[in-house]
Design goal:
Elements lengths: L1 H18 L3 H8 L16 H6 L1 H4 L4 H4 L25 H8 L17 H5 L19 H9 L9 H5 L5 H7 L9 H5 L19 H6 L3 H9 L1 H7 L8 H5 L19 H9 L2 H7 L5 H6 L2 H7 L8 H5 L19 H6 L7 H4 L8 H4 L1 H43 L1
Length: 409
């Protein structure tokens, strides 16, 4: 009796697939390149590509996705089928997607909804680790650009999106093949992409530090220990974050002349906040930082394109900017000789007493004002003497020629 039962179980396991739909039933029609809908949309499916896809290799059949054709026998089937529900297998990804900006139409920005197939493809879906996959790190930017440079119209326009291809992140990805370099999904996420003004978004002001810190761990630590980071933790919305200084898509190396943090541009970036009188009154810091810096030797040299001269970051630091009262600050009184000594070898405490941000040198930095005035008077006198000497020499030459001509006549 037991042997008979086992026999019928094996027989059923063998016969059931024979009476169910197979991929061959679909390929009979869909292998025809000329097969199209009444609107002219192609219904051709390259079965070889499907077999090499991640679904084909996993043994998933056509009806596993097109479930409304399960047990269907009366071919040909209706022209319009139910939309494929990827969430049947990919539940977590679908839950994230439903909360994303891609799943929501936004007519005010003339956007369109994005489905799974727009990013992953249809029958030729590859693993994200496959070099040929649309979402492989090296290919992902172009996949996103298919919509964001053509179909999607935003206030910033396609130029804003296209800036990424000129960034240091893209060059590392595209030119050097560094798949760890930031691409779209590293910053915006994969299925859970949200708008920049949505607080849970990875690129919102409340999340951007952590997002950048995934790769730039040391910089995140320095930032959080500085004055900006401490205010950021307090929830102060006006505090600068990564994108305020480095921009968003067009992030470039500080050595790149087009970079917003290139040596001669740093002062302008800092002055966006530190010359803002509204912010100064609200948070109690001094203004006219750019004006006072520009009037100094450092600022004058920087305006003429000198990259080796000190700028804001040379003295105050880059990401770990601290208050002058902080003993770890590079502009703390005890640390100034070392800070100045980076450029001026042998700089001591007296050298470091010179002030940079001085609105009135006459009252704020008397010795610097005295030296500056002395040099102006001395240089003016020297130039004046030379001008008098030149004028006298020219007069003498002209006078001699006049006398010579008069004698000839």
């Amino acid at each position: 009796m037991k042997k008979t039962l086992i026999f019928f179980v094996f027989l059923a396991a063998f016969l059931i697939p024979c009476f169910s739909e197979t991929d061959e039933d679909c390929i009979v029609c869909h292998e025809d390149p000329e097969l199209k809908t009444e609107e002219g949309k192609s219904l051709f499916m390259d079965y070889e590509k499907f077999l090499s896809s991640i679904h084909g290799q996993a043994g998933i059949s056509c009806v596993d996705c097109h479930s409304d054709l399960m047990n269907f026998e009366d071919f040909p089937h209706a022209e319009k089928l139910n939309a494929v529900n990827c969430g049947m297998c990919h539940e977590k990804a679908m839950e994230e997607y439903k909360k994303s900006i891609h799943s929501q139409a936004t007519p005010e920005e003339d956007c369109c909804t994005v489905s799974c197939k727009d990013c992953h493809g249809k029958h030729d879906i590859k693993s994200k680790n496959n070099y040929d996959s649309r979402v492989f790190p090296l290919n992902l930017p172009r996949t996103c650009e298919n919509c964001h440079l053509e179909r999607v119209k935003t206030k910033r326009g396609g130029e804003f999106i296209g800036q990424y291809t000129r960034s240091i992140h893209f060059r590392a990805l595209d030119k050097a093949g560094l798949t760890l370099s930031a691409n779209c999904s590293h910053c915006h996420g994969a299925h859970d992409i949200r708008g920049v003004h949505d607080p849970p978004s990875r690129v919102s002001r409340r999340k951007i530090i952590r997002t950048c810190g995934v790769c730039h761990v040391g910089i995140e630590i320095d930032y959080m220990e500085g004055v900006h980071g401490k205010d950021y933790v307090k929830g102060i919305k006006d505090v600068p974050v990564c994108t305020d200084c480095h921009n968003e898509h067009n992030i470039s190396s500080p050595q790149d002349m087009n970079s917003s943090v290139y040596a001669t541009k740093v002062a302008e970036v800092c002055s966006r906040c530190h010359d803002d009188e509204v912010l100064a009154r609200q948070y109690g810091f001094l203004t006219a930082r750019l004006k006072t810096f520009s009037n100094s030797f450092h600022g004058t040299a920087s305006k003429f394109g000198e990259t080796r001269v000190a700028n804001c970051s040379s003295c105050h630091g880059f990401h770990d900017i601290r208050s002058s009262s902080d003993t770890k600050s590079s502009i703390h009184a005890d640390n100034l000789p070392e800070t100045c000594g980076k450029c001026h070898a042998g700089a001591g405490k007296n050298f470091a007493k010179g002030k940079i941000h001085v609105i009135s040198e006459k009252t704020g930095n008397k010795w610097a004002y005295f030296v500056k005035t002395f040099y102006i008077i001395m240089i003016s006198c020297i130039v004046g003497v030379f001008l008098i000497f030149i004028a006298a020499d020219l007069f003498h030459r002209v006078f001699r020629k006049w006398i010579a001509k008069k004698r000839q006549t």
